[in-house]
Structure formats: C-alpha cells, structure tokens
Amino acid sequence: MNEKPPENHWHNRAAWDRLARMQDRLAKPARDEDFNNPLANVDAMGWLGGNVRGKRLLCLAAGGGRQGPIYAAAGAEVTVVDLSPAMLELDREVAQERQLKIRTVEASMDNLSMLDNAYFDVVIHPVSTCYVSDVRPVYQEVARIMVAGGVYVSQHKQPASLQSDIEPHQGSYRIKHGYYKKDPLPAESRPNLIREDGTLEYVHRWEELIGAMCASGFVIEALTEPMHAKQNSQTGTFGHRSTMIAPYVRMKARKMGAETSGKSKGLILG
Ligand SMILES: C[S@@+](CC[C@H](N)C(=O)[O-])C[C@H]1O[C@@H](n2cnc3c(N)ncnc32)[C@H](O)[C@@H]1O
C-alpha cells in the first residue's frame, strides 16, 4: 500500500468533484421512488438475501447520494467511502433530508487504513476499480475489513470495453489499447457512456479482476454481465456498442476464513 497517494488520486479526486458539481448522471441523488422498496432497487438480483437490516454495510467508492441513503433506508448501518468530497457531500445532504444515519469517509479504495479489521458484513462496490492502477491492494483492503462469511458485491468495466474504440468504424469497434497497458488511457474527444470525462482510467485484465479477488481470500459465488445490448439500435449508440462488447461485469463474492467478529456469528446473507 502506498504511503503517499499517487498522482492519479488527486487527478481523479478533482475530476469527480467536478462531475458532482455538474450533476453528472453518476452524481444523481436518490429520488423519492427509490425509497419505496429500497433494497429491491439496489439489489435486483437478490444477492443480499432480501434483508440487510442491522448489517454493517460499506458502500465503497459509491458517493453521489444514491447507494448509501438507499441501503440506510433498507435498515443497514451504512458507511460510504469515496475519494471525492463533493460526492460525499451529496450523501450527507440526502441523509439529512431523509433523516438517515450515514457515516462518510474520504479515502481511496486502495488504502482503507482508517477502517477496522473484520468489521463489515457487506461491501457494495460500484464501477470504480478503473480509477486505480492496481486492483490488488483494493481487494486486500476489502478482505481485511470484512468479516468471514461476508458478501462482497462489485461491478467493473470489462477490459475489452476499455480497450476498444468508443466510436464505430465501418460498423464495428476496433481494439485500440493493449490488454497489458499499464498507463492510464488517453482522454476521449467526446463525452460518452463508456468513459467518465476528465478522469484517468486503467484497463484491468481478467486475471486481475477475478484472479486477484480469489487470491485475496474471496470465493466468487455468482457473476453476471449486466445487459445493455439493444438489438437493432443505431450504430454508434451505447446500446449498439453493447451488442458487440459487454460493458460491465458484476460479481458476488464471499469472504473466506475463520469467524473473527462476534457480531457477525452465524451470518447468512444471500
Ligand atoms: C461510477 S461512480 C459510483 C457512484 C455512483 N453514484 C453510483 O450510484 O453508482 C464512481 C465513484 O468512485 C469514486 N472514486 C474514484 N476513484 C476512487 C478511489 N480511488 N477511491 C475511492 N473512490 C473513488 C468517484 O468519486 C465516484 O463517486
């Protein structure tokens, strides 16, 4: 783990602060209807077993006023970690408006040293590993702060999607960046739904996204590729590109190991 944050930390922090201030589509706080049946709204697959009441739940890299408040409304004891103070401010605003209790922590996902060992029953981690150059310390930190038997739900950008052209060329999308690329991807010229404007993003290989998760002490119990393909959609749209390249992968993993936390004894989720 790095003592001094790398350059991409400050770059992405500023970029996400800007996106939050611009009310970007990924910085849209939860709406009234999201609170009607809160858990169903954020866990359509039922991976959390239909109940998070009283669970210690970490929304990792999930600021923006949506996920944290919804899980808190579902009865979880919620902590939100995010790199961006402006994204966290949205969580605090929504929590205050709706009288929900949420702890917000400004930190990078690859250094959670302010969080206790074996504390969280559930970690929810929306798409964001693309913003760090190395996923291994992220998984190691998540494993450290989770109880044995806890559930880790994460979503990631697929490598082929990050590697490929955003715009089509004669109806297809060419692979533009190497699979083993270590440097951040170059900026795209136009806003699009594949890359977030102004951020530094990295391609992670399957060996890293899945292999490193297993090596960090997780067993993967389920894996899906959220469907965004729209057959017969116009060439160049997100729906069309998704018929050729799946944008995301979502995984449910369980932390292995001997039970360490008194609170979580007998924990069964999902
Ligand atoms: C795609 S958004 C996810 C949150 C979104 N509001 C949602 O509802 O899913 C990605 C989030 O990751 C955060 N982020 C980026 N790099 C990070 C890092 N190194 N550590 C923690 N959070 C990070 C951003 O500030 C942003 O809030």
UniProtKB/TrEMBL annotation:
A GO molecular-function annotation: S-adenosylmethionine-dependent methyltransferase activity
All residue ranges annotated as the Methyltransferase type domain in the record: 58-153
Gene3D superfamilies with a match to the protein in the record: Vaccinia Virus protein VP39
Annotated TM spans: none
Domain of life, source organism: Bacteria
Descriptive protein name: Methyltransferase type 11 domain-containing protein
UniProt source species: Mariniblastus fucicola
